[in-house]
Design a protein that fits this description.
With 402 residues, this protein is mostly helical. Helix content is 38%, strand content 5%. Helix 3 (64-88) runs parallel beside helix 11, helix 5 (155-170) crosses helix 6 (203-213) and helix 10 (313-345) packs antiparallel against helix 11.
Length: 402
Amino acid sequence: GKEMCEKLWDGAFVYEDKETHAYTWDWAVGESNPNNAILPSKAYPENHCPSENPEMAECYTPTYEVDARVNFVESRVDAMEQHMEEALGHDEGCGTCHAIYHHKEVSSPTDFGTVQACGQYKDNACCTAETANVVHNDELYGEEYRWDRCGALSEKCQRHFVNEACLYECDVHVGKWRKHDDCFDEVAGEENKWQISGMPLKASLCDSFYEDCKNDNFCANDDTKSFFDEVTCEASQCRPFSAIYSGGKEMCEKLWDGAFVYEGNETHAYTWDWAVGESNPNNNILPTTMFPDNCPGHSPDQTACHSVLSNNDAELSGLKAENKKLHTLVETLQAQVESVVKDVAGDDNDGEGFAIAGFVVGFLALALAIIAMVVALKASKTSMNNCLKPGQGHVTLEEGAI
């Protein structure tokens, strides 16, 4: 389906796994167009084509003020998103490690010394140097989970497995994708604090992973193709990666039992591949996606966090002010939209009515997106304050600000 949609119409469409950010052509007559709610802040081109000059008089006059205000709000939303990325997306020096296996309780700058692996996480790591020192062998997960059970992997293939282990053990953002919110697996009937699910990886990374490993031998469960589901591995079970997986998508999504998903929109996807000394690019990915609550009975010591995160107070105060202004604007715009809707309801001119109604639907989608964003901002701020000691001077968004 991916190749068919992307190539049949010469690149007109792209295959999007994240369906809340994707359009459709399939809904029933009588239902509202679901595309009205997709990417509402995506702007139309500024100018019409040179040969086109559509008659906008009927659309423009009744909605002139609302249209101008919408444009203003959109510009503020863009600025607000940039501020959020600056406040939430940098190398924070502290954060709860919500995936719990060999992890530290709290991420922090880490001196990896002469350890060869995971050095790219030195500014902020959930792993210790001792863990990083054994990610490449069976000491960390046990003999049954070695990735070289079918013989030594090529250097370029093994590099991906080492980087994946470093991502899981060291990157604080992995905790956002903990599979069980309450840290208990109902199906297995046991505690599960370690498993992650659905973390988006860059499609290009997965494709490179497949290309670098396709000729190496590996062992995975025949049915699930999961590495975890095949704890023993006889020589007769060993096959090239290319005989197990059809490509990078299947390999990333099935090898670790659903821990990752293949994401074509790489601005919304994580990576495990960057050079030591560069800042962690994952800090800028999905900054408003929330971390889960702490596992029951897990209360990590956050003493060291406040001095680091207090530097964010000024930025968060600015975001709080923007939030209040934006809330006031949304209220005003909603009142104006209600007025326009009343005009539409009493208008017998079908052409004008439909044009205005279409604008109103689009605007309402935008307003809902704005409200969702400011709610996410509040939640993001709350998540960051989880890293602060109770009673210390962190920013608190007033209830009336949302």
